Fold this protein.
Amino acid sequence: MVTSRAVVGAPPRPPRAVPRRTYWWRRTVLVLALLTFTFAAYMGTTLTMYLTNPTYGVSLSARAAEWGRDHGLGGFVAWAEQQLYNLNPPKTGGRPSQGAFGSGPDATHVTASGHLAPPVTIQSPAGTNLPGEGVWHVAGRVTSTGIPTTYVAYVRPDPIHTSYVAAVAWMDPTLLKAQLYSGSQIPGNSPNGFTYSAPITATASRTLVDAFNAGFRMQDAHGGYYTDGRTIIPLRRGGAAAVVTSDGKLSVGMWGRDFQMGPNIVSVRQNLNLIVDNGQPVASLTNPNYAIWGATLGGTAYVWRSGLGVTKDGAIVYAAGPTLSISSLARLLVAAGAVRAMEMDINVDWVQYSYFSKTNGLMVNGGDGTSLLNGSHGTAAMAGTASRYFVNWWTRDFYTMSLR
């Protein structure tokens, strides 16, 4: 049997031709791999930027949620938040922890002239007051003559979530002057910056009494913003507005009805519509689509909320706490004496109020480093501290109340 052999000196066989389709698939796979790597690198880089930037939230979870919403994952974020809420819903029933209603000199025991009459005890929205509930206590700096400028009181927010405590601060505008501090992100649109923005200076801190959050991001506020003699975002007629006038007084009302633009207007900060008017919660609060009052964590009704109101005699009341629906927030402000009120910011990372005492240096949360507001068993504390107002990277707007 004869076997075939390669002929010595014969030319090599030409390389086998690769089909055009194979080249196309190879190029497609390479391009997809490069795109996937680039996309993953971009997403990873931006996620790292968000997680390390406290302007996107006090907690890592809030920062991750902000990143997700800003990168097309809003639906997944909402689903994840809903699952977490379902696993840990607000508790029903129970009693607050011992000492949850505060301490210190009672407002009714302070007798001094030259300021508004001290507020009366708040009737608890949860029903019959527990011992100490709704009692106003002197808080923060007093005037040089010893007159209190701020009182705080604590009450249960509703008859269902009775182990939680919300807080209300009452501030005397005859003794305090207000200032809106703008942020770079809220309201934005100011290439030259703002006259007042974080950080609160050491000089300003010497007379500082109260500091608290303002409202939503402007794309969610459905309203305008005026400061530094400029309309940063057009004001909406009929919208709720917090207004500071040239005499340093802060008030709350409906723009176009209670306030008009004039030389006495220093700043206007709008956020949605009034939730209290004529001393009563407005009818629209019963709208079953409670999302119109802000996108809450998990799309739920009972979350951390804050609100700002004005009483009949002009006192400013700020209310905040956990497990507040928009209706229970309004009822809480009415119980504190508000005749007009608006919702401010919501969700645990953005709700923050602190009062300050006379001492050396900057004081945070009354000087003890703890949060003013506490929820059930003292564990549902407000996220973060007032230190946010004393750093130059804080990009959100807020209010201060200082001694005149």
Q: What stands out?
A: The mean pLDDT is 82.
